[in-house]
Design a protein that fits this description.
Layout lengths: L1 H14 L8 E5 L11 E7 L17 E7 L2 E7 L4 H4 L6 H9 L4 E10 L9 E9 L24 H14 L5 E6 L8 H10 L3 E3 L3 H9 L3 E11 L10 H10 L1 H14 L4
Parallel strand pairs: 1-4, 1-5, 5-9, 6-7, 7-8
Antiparallel strand pairs: 2-3, 3-4, 5-8, 6-9
Helix pairs in contact: 1-3, 4-8
């Protein structure tokens, strides 16, 4: 059924101006949607109009699919995502991720707003994710009965794409440390005890998204990279008590550096 659903979604977006080939696709996290303003020749569709697409009911997620040109490349931007905490379904983004595969897009870049569990990674920082901890107890491949469900996640965050991100960061004059992203379900923020646990387990960042999309992307054979915009110190670090408003505000403040990094990355994709 999911195969038929994504075919119908693909036929719809192609028929509504999002046809042809793309060099990369990006999922834009909380507060990062303004990247679409950097596109030229942009064409957009609301998620609500695309068959089988999820609705995003979170402020900071516009819920639009946007195609356009960036640094001489054609890109597809998912302006917002659906979360596990909204739907109770870890596979809420399955059709959008499958659409990337169906459209023949070779690279998927996932972005998010994240909390830092390391005091030296300050709010406003950009971090390239190099691995993850799934601490949610959920998986988007539950109830999938194909052999493909046993997907390997070794090297899930593609090393070559991370090298391109690092080269792009250097050219843009941006510091880009790498770190491990821990996924907890949300929507409530983590407790200080949960943050201490995450530190012990080797996490550097914490958030409520991205990991199920990485699992789905690897299921579909896509090359994946991911970037976090650090919007807050996690609970209990230097007395921090995070809020969604803080997440949106700090993501907006980091928006210019985020845009510079992504523009530089897209320009560097010609060297893949």
């Amino acid at each position: 059924m999911i195969h038929l659903n994504v075919q119908e979604a693909a036929e719809f977006v192609r028929a509504n101006g999002l046809d042809g080939s793309f060099d990369a696709a990006f999922v834009l996290g909380t507060g990062l949607g303004p990247l679409v303003d950097e596109l030229t020749d942009a064409v957009s569709l609301p998620y609500a109009e695309i068959p089988y697409f999820p609705n995003s009911g979170v402020s900071g997620h516009a819920g639009r699919l946007v195609a356009g040109m960036l640094e001489g490349k054609r890109v597809l931007l998912f302006q917002g995502r659906a979360h596990y905490y909204e739907t109770g379904d870890a596979g809420a983004m399955r059709v959008p991720v499958a659409l990337v595969k169906e459209l023949g897009i070779p690279v998927l870049v996932l972005t998010n707003a994240a909390g830092s569990v390391r005091a030296h990674i300050r709010p406003g920082s950009l971090v390239a994710i190099n691995d993850h901890l799934n601490l949610s107890g959920a998986n988007p491949l539950l109830r999938d009965h194909t052999e493909g469900r046993f997907v390997s996640l070794t090297g899930a965050y593609d090393e070559d794409l991370r090298k391109i991100l690092q080269a792009a960061a250097r050219k843009a004059g941006i510091d880009l440390p790498e770190g491990v992203y821990a996924w907890l379900s949300g929507p409530s923020f983590e407790t200080p005890a949960e943050i201490r646990m995450t530190q012990i387990l080797g996490g550097d960042l914490v958030g409520m998204s991205t990991v199920p999309e990485v699992i789905l992307a690897r299921y579909y054979g896509l090359k994946v990279a991911a970037v976090s915009v650090v919007t807050n110190l996690a609970a209990g670090i230097e007395g921090a008590s995070p809020s969604h408003q803080e997440t949106k505000d700090t993501a907006a403040e980091a928006s210019d550096r985020f845009k510079r990094l992504i523009r530089s990355f897209v320009a560097e994709l010609s060297h893949v």
